[in-house]
Amino acid sequence: MIGRTVQVRGSARLSFTLINLDAASLRRNGIAAMAVQRPGLTVRMRASRGATSRVLGVEPETAADLLAALATLEKLWDGPPVTVTVPRPLPQHSGFGSKTAGLLAVGRAYGALCGHDPALPQLSEILGRGRTSGASTGLAEFGGFLVDGGHRNPPDFAASPATYLRPSRFAQPVPVPKPIVKLPFPPWPVLVLMTNGRHLGGAEELAWFQRVTPIPQEQAQRTAQLVFMGLAPAVAEHDYEGFCDAVNEITFTSHFKREQIAFQGRAVEDVLTAGRDSTAIDAIALSVTGPACFAFTRTPEAARGWAQSLMRRGAIRDFWFTEADNCGLTVGHVPHR
User: Fold this and answer.
1) HEC-encoded secondary structure of 218-261
2) What is the pLDDT of residues 158-195, one digit of tens each?
3) Residue 236 and residue 178: Cα distance in Å, rounded?
4) Domain 4-335 part of CATH 3.40.50.10860
5) How far is CA 20 from CA 121, 223, 262, 326, in A?
6) Long-range CB pairs of 222-226, under 8 A, 24+ apart, other chains included
7) What does the DSSP 8-state code read for residue 57?
8) pTM, 2 dp
9) CB-based contact 103:65 (threshold 8 Å)
10) What are the boundaries of each domain within the chain?
């Protein structure tokens, strides 16, 4: 295996909304999300002659997570130490699903080196992901647009919802949710906006999550309606106007998304409001708790001018156009030099 380099490429996840976060429904969580090509993820891995694995090219928090995953897989598959290089990492705690995407890419690369090809849901479960949302796992497997149905609530859920309504890192081990809607996303341009908002992760994310959940049951029901009778059929029918109407309803009227926007405050609220008021932007959303936003437009050049005006005012740090990734995670090899 020395000299052989495995390369894995993955997409970024953009999340429209979590769905069932109330204390009375039969299921919890669930999500609507899509995969986009940029920002993307590239991971390269080769067996190492050293005694321990190394991870290069990422922030210390990400490196620690990836090394912990490798330790688990080395023990499981009796594999060698490796050197991991990440020439193209996903931005951390920004709304792109960076942690799960990184873990799955490293896990798939290590499996290829060791002669294993685990299903991505199985790999995700081994590495402790998918306990809240199955979006990043499902999108790594299939790409496109998906909705998962979350997890079946146990009998004691209503008595103690805070025990179960948690970010994935802090949630109890459960199988990764399966996609119940799985569709290629139409060739509509996606404008990604990097705002000056806050990053949310770790213990702060847990505290925030438990402060704002459970939400009222009628609000969870309305979000489900917007997803299953708004977003999903519009994607299936390539109904751009219907899709944009559903995105805007989620962003500006749904309970949990408004809580996520409130966490971000004016830095993000002003960008979303500017998008709603602009004739160049047909729909705008916040991915998870952000700070990344994303928008849809029929007039990319006008939308580019709008985004440039936000840059000049200091309202955003960066922006770019991208397209949906309808393929999912890919595995290949880099020739040895």
Assistant:
1) HHHHHHHHHHHHHHHHHHHHCCHHHHHHHHHHHHHHCHHHHHHH
2) 999 999 999 888 888 899 999 999 999 999 999 999 99
3) 18
4) no
5) 21, 8, 19, 26
6) 222/254, 222/255, 223/17, 223/18, 223/19, 223/20, 223/250, 223/254, 223/255, 223/256, 224/19, 224/20, 224/30, 226/17, 226/250, 226/254
7) S
8) 0.94
9) yes
10) 4-335
